[in-house]
Amino acid sequence: MNKNLIFRYIFIVSFSGLSLPNFAQQRGEVQDQEFVIRKDRVLTVPVQPRNFERIPVLPTPKSTANFNYLVKPFFLNLPPLEIAPEASLKQFPRTNEELFPGFVRVGYGNYASPILEARYNLWEDGDYNIGAKIKHEGFYTGPVGGKNSAENHTNVGLDGTLFKDYFELYGHVDYIRDLYNFYGYDPENVNLQEFVTPQNIFNTFKIKAGISNLEKMSDLNYDANLNVRLFNDSFMAVENEIGINGRADFWYNENLRTAVDANLSLTTPSDEFYADINRNYFKIKPYVEYRRQGLSILAGANIVFENDITTNKKSDFHIFPAISGSYMLNEAFGIYAGVEGDVNRKTYYDFVMENPFLGPSDELLNTIQNFVASAGVKGTINAEFTYEAGVNVGKYANMHFFTTAPSDSLRFNLVYDTDTRVINYTASVGWEYQDWYKLTGSVNYYQYTLNDLSAAFHRPEWELILGNTFKPTEKFLINANINAMGGIVAYKPTLDVTETLPTIFDLNVKLDYKINNQVSVFAVGNNLLNQSNQRFLNYPVRGIQGIGGLTIKF
């Protein structure tokens, strides 16, 4: 071991000696050098004992204490932090259409038909929204006898909403005036050349006030309102109604909810043949709904009390099931089915809004819907095309129809059927292509089986509705619609015969062109095929009729 160390030192010193002269010549010359080598020196290293024993693993300490952290709240009486938001310096595009609180629309067309519509809203300041509206549309000449078939409509209203932290208070006040002429006479009759049609004016005053929760996606939702309606015409028909409507639902989770709908209606009608009548109606509908992964089930009941007096009535109290369900196998295909019974509330106001040429009524009855069973399929294809097709089978009591009055051919009477069966085949489609075209369409076919009447007077056998919306540019909008119905049977009491009215086919088009964000022009064309359509016997509608005008936002 000592010899090896000696040779290593000699080797290191030899190479060191070769390099030192060169280094000395660069930094400075060295004259004499001397190296001493001692052969008798011995280097020794102390012996380190090796430890072959492993370190023992110590046991993990376990504590018997419970680590309970007591959090004490400390309340500081400090004012809330005020956040002063500042607008971004980036110039984002602004939609000016949302900033105009009011608009005015004026127009004029043939049949001496002016139109005026205006609305203004106060919504920028405070936690409220107040709006006022007025609309007048008149047709001062008509299809039969010029002014003898005139009509006009006026609507004036106020509405407002007050927003609180968790709920909103809302209200509406409306006055509606509708003028009609009984022009269903034969203008070619020489005895009626100087005939002046009787005129009927409907005056309707409505008040509505209610409360509703603000957050519609909360677990508990509610809405309750009070309605008052006062109605009279130019003759002896008067009907006042007080109604209370309520709705509440509670979501247990995202799949299950329970709800209840309630409606109370107190009506006091009077006419030429009756007075001092109180028609009361109360309905409550509790139900439970379950939704999950394409499955939807609703189960409930319609509980109704109504006091109409009829010969075939067993009780004023009714309980009907309300059950429906649907299951979507996938987005493109699903099935649905249901059965529901009900009492459909019918007032004189409802009847006269359906047929404005109604004369004095003998009695007013609700329609008893013993049941309506439905089944069908529906779905969505490629997120663009939607469809639905099905069949409804129903059984009714006291379903209403219209027939010409025997004593006055200008007016219609209400007639009822005690036992009516209806089969309704229905289908509807919808298609939206990008942002410039939208199609909606529906078709219905009805089969009536009646007990007391020979036909379903003035109810269509089939209906077709087709709507098209085109938006070729951002400023241009086109609506083209078709409304058709056929198989309408009318009864002529003077001849004791029935007559099927011609098929109704109405093609109407509306054009809108936006000049700028505040000004646009419009044009409307109705009955462009100039059909002599009759929804009610002896009452043809106007032929080709057009209106053009201007809309200004401010």
Q: Please give the count of helices.
A: 2
How far apart lie the N and C ends?
A: 110 Å
User: How large is the radius of gyration?
Assistant: 43 Å
Order of helices and strands: HEEEEEEEEEEEEEHEEEEEEEEEEEEEEE
Largest sheet: 22 strands, antiparallel, barrel
Shape: globular
What structural class results from the helix and strand content? mainly beta
Number of strands: 28
Output mean pLDDT: 86
- Which consecutive residue ranges, at least 5 long each, have pLDDT under 50? 9-28, 50-90
**Helix percentage range:** under 10%
Strand proportion, as a percent range, falls in over 45%
Subcellular location: Cell outer membrane
Protein name: TonB-dependent receptor
Keywords: Cell outer membrane, Membrane, Receptor, Signal
Signal peptide: 1-24
Quick take:
With 554 residues, the protein is mostly beta strands.
Topology:
Blueprint lengths: L1 H26 L74 E8 L3 E10 L5 E12 L11 E13 L3 E15 L17 E15 L6 E13 L5 E14 L4 E15 L8 E14 L2 E12 L10 E14 L2 E12 L3 H7 L12 E15 L3 E13 L1 E6 L7 E6 L2 E14 L3 E13 L12 E9 L5 E11 L2 E4 L4 E4 L3 E11 L4 E8 L7 E3 L2 E2 L4 E9 L1
Antiparallel strand pairs: 1-2, 1-28, 2-3, 3-4, 4-5, 5-6, 6-7, 7-8, 8-9, 9-10, 10-11, 11-12, 12-13, 13-14, 14-15, 15-18, 16-17, 18-19, 19-20, 20-21, 21-24, 22-23, 24-25, 25-28, 26-27
What key phrases describe this protein's structure?
554 residues; 6% helix; two-stranded antiparallel ribbon; mainly beta; membrane
Descriptive notes:
The structure is a single chain. This protein is mainly β and 554 residues long. Helix content is 6%, strand content 53%. It contains 2 helices and 28 strands. It has helices at 2-27, 348-354, and strands at 102-109, 113-122, 128-139, 151-163, 167-181, 199-213, 220-232, 238-251, 256-270, 279-292, 295-306, 317-330, 333-344, 367-381, 385-397, 399-404, 412-417, 420-433, 437-449, 462-470, 476-486, 489-492, 497-500, 504-514, 519-526, 534-536, 539-540, 545-553. The protein has a 22-stranded antiparallel barrel. A two-stranded antiparallel sheet has the order 16-17. Strand 6 and strand 7 form a beta hairpin. The longest helix is centred in the first third of the chain and has 26 residues, at 2-27. The radius of gyration is 43 Å and the shape is globular. The termini are far apart. The model is unreliable at 9-28 and 50-90 (pLDDT under 50). It is found in: Cell outer membrane. It comes from Belliella calami. Residues 1-24 form the signal peptide. Its main location: membrane. This is TonB-dependent receptor.
